[in-house]
Amino acid sequence: MNNDFFSRRGIKRMQRNIRHFVSRECAKQQSSIRNALLLLLLTGITACQKTGFSYDNVVDNQQTDYILTDTLSVAMKTILYDSVPTSGSGLLLVGTKSDPYLGAVTAGSYFQVIQPGGTDIPVNGSGFDSLRLILRPSGYIAGDSLQPQSLQVYRVTQTIQFAKTFYSLYNNSNFATENTPLGTFSGVIRPKTDKSVSIPLSNVLGNQLFTMLRDKSPDITAGPNFLDFFRGLKIVPGPGSTALMAFLAQDTSLTMRLYYHVNEIVTTVKYVDFKMNASELQFNQVTANRSGTPLEKLQVPVKELPSSATGNMSFTQSLTGVGTRIDLPYLKNMQQLGQFFKIMKVILTVYPAAGTFNGSSQIPTHLALCQVDKTNAVTDTIAYGNLTVDNLYNENTYYSYDITNYCNTQLTADNNGARGLFLTTPGGAGRNSFDRLVINDQQAPKKKIKVQVYYLLYK
Q: Can you give the pTM of this predicted structure?
């Protein structure tokens, strides 16, 4: 939209549209007299809220209208934020997926395991069998579950811990590992039906742990000593991985299992579990390679790109650290339309760009609308939006938000109080899913972002 929307010519055009709108609306009423009285009463009530305005100011040939406009300019940017907290989410994310809009996304996960308690393995007649990492799918997958997946497991060599004064680990946190994987997996994983995935780990490590348990080594029997000896595991996608998957990350569902046997009258196979420890320290590391995408230039030190530089689109995907900022740069100018102006209702409608999703898949089920300051720091959450899904044609899928209070506040806000709007996936939903949203700006021919302003105007 042109920046001269509120120029003299633009105002005249709006006034003509206003009169057409009012005439059309009045025709729908059963009684034009009742409609006029109601409109006059509503105008009088709201007018009394403005200092200096009263019925004494009204001249017979002046007009008060209740108006709808959806031509207010919207400025959009894709924002890159520094980091996303991913610890303690209860889900382990791993895999790789290429996206034409967001780039090639890769996820891996770090976690600790703790030694089993009260294990009594006989010294004579027992032996080690195998060591395995047991994963339990959550059912979530982004990508093709029919293709073979590849996973690799590494031993962590640094203590997994929070940084000083921080109480989370982030998508860009990192801890050193050994160079050679402890174990690998390759095969088809059916996240909706498979109960577990078993990854064979190093027999050398397994034998060492078995011997320590059998001989009751202080490194494995004295509580904190074990975490100094074995600092944790990292699981990452291997070559050929084409999907992103989620596995449960609780102490009963994520385990390193050691199988052994005891030769008695009949050989008995047994096992002990090294369960996940400190769920608050389990976190997902997520990176994105945006080469060849509209967001290719969105990397430090560049932390924001206007929609005009990204194909008249903006993007939201919390796990990779991007969100959409929305500003209404000419909102205050609407007060110049007449002697008295009052916003009654404002609805923001956000359409996923056509061709970027399928039904309700790939787009966030929940999408938070927040307020942000000039540095893009979130200062408040306005609403979580109403998602309407058109599963048949995908034509009328959209999120809607009532931003009336926000707009009324911004009409009188000074520079310190000025706020923009920010679309992001909230809390746990944003940390556990690779769903993303592609939004058209107002230059797109259809399915573009829309702001509808209902207001009273006394000329």
A: 0.80
